[in-house]
Amino acid sequence: MSFLRVVGNILWLFTVGLALAISLAISGIIMFISIIGIPFGIQAFKLVVYVLWPFGSEVVQVSASTPGCIGNVLWFVLGGLPAALIALLFGLVAFVTIIGIPLGLILIRMVPLLAFPFGKEVVPRRETATP
């Protein structure tokens, strides 16, 4: 199964991942200009790591704190909604081709993370043993 993940990640990287990672990295750098934007820049860089190599990773909820909820609301209003809608649109478009279906699934899976990144962590996907 790891071979398919590597192939999926390479295909992802050259079709969607690199452009998405660069745009998130630039956004993160811009957010670091002000002290108030630093937590948002940190979240943007967490997303960069995930969007570069998403196959084999999963997003888990780690906390639901008040500052995280406020951060999610601000993130959503100031840029999360357009990012999530663009990912959803491109995810649906990717379903047109058979080879694009896995990429579309990853894009659609990214929508909640792009909309509300605070309180979430990206972790390696656990392997399930089959008898």
TrEMBL record:
InterPro entries: Inner_membrane_protein, YccF
Protein name per UniProt: Unannotated protein
One matching Pfam family: YccF
Keywords: Membrane, Transmembrane, Transmembrane helix
Transmembrane stretches, start-end: 6-25, 32-53, 73-106
One term under GO cellular component: plasma membrane
Transmembrane helix among keywords: yes
Keyword hit for Transmembrane: yes
PANTHER family: INNER MEMBRANE PROTEIN YCCF
Species, as recorded: freshwater metagenome
